[in-house]
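FAQ: What does the model actually see?

It sees only this:
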Amino acid sequence: MAATQAACIFCKIVKGDIPSFKLFESDKVLAFLDIQPLSKGHALVIPKHHGAKLTDIPDDALTEILPVVKKLAAASGAVDYNVLQNNGRIAHQEVDHVHFHMIPKPNETEGLGVGWPAGKTDFDALKKLHEDLKAKF
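And it is asked to produce this:
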């Protein structure tokens, strides 16, 4: 169930009601260290606009997100890193406020572990999907 803005932990961090290790802040964006990091330098970048899923956030509230993630990646000194953004419980979203993880991957065991169970390509199905999505885009 989506958290209301009043109950949202990230909104409380934005308001200053909950302390955080802020790395960057502007009118639209807040970046801070993750308190349960997967690796040293694991940080979160959030829009200040509350919304549970990416599609809930107005485009103008997202304009600084990737530039800030990019700056965090550079500042961390990480050669390898993951940028992760989940939407919904079965997609592994824990906090119902859009957030982007920048997770340094210093070695094989630290950082994000990812499984990628790729399926076989069905070009007829892919062509139909392409047509359907393009028509809705």
